[in-house]
Amino acid sequence: MITNPEIVKKFEDNFIKRERLSYQQSLDIVESLWAEGVALGVLPPKEHSIGIDIDIRIASILNSCSEKSCQK
Fold first, then answer.
1. Which of 25, 39, 45, 71 has the smallest CB count inside 10 Å?
2. HEC string of 51-71?
3. Separation between Cα atoms, residue 31 and residue 22, nearest integer Å
4. In this structure, are residues 63 and 72 in contact, taking their beta carbons and an 8 Å threshold?
5. Are the C-beta atoms of residues 66 and 16 closer than 8 Å to each other?
6. pLDDT at 28
């Protein structure tokens, strides 16, 4: 259980700033998360049109991560 979320947030922010992921590493993470969702039975959605807003948000986040990892 996280007792001090501020410390965790600072750690995550610093880690993200220091560590740059390649496109392949990012893709591997997304594929692993997808596989976990399938294993849990929450992916793929039963109706494809439901959750399109979430898909758009995920794409936006991934694009943002990709842009940040390309910067030096």
1. 71
2. CHHHHHHHHHHHHHHHHHHHC
3. 14
4. no
5. no
6. 94
Percent of the chain with pLDDT over 70: 90
- Give residue 68's pLDDT band: very low, low, confident or very high (50, 70, 90): low
Backbone angles phi, psi at 31, to 5 degrees: -65, -40
Q: What is the pTM of this model?
A: 0.49
Q: Do 65 and 28 form a contact (C-beta atoms < 8 A)?
A: no
CA distance 14 to 22: 18
Contacts of 26 (CB under 8 A, 6+ apart): 62, 65, 66, 69
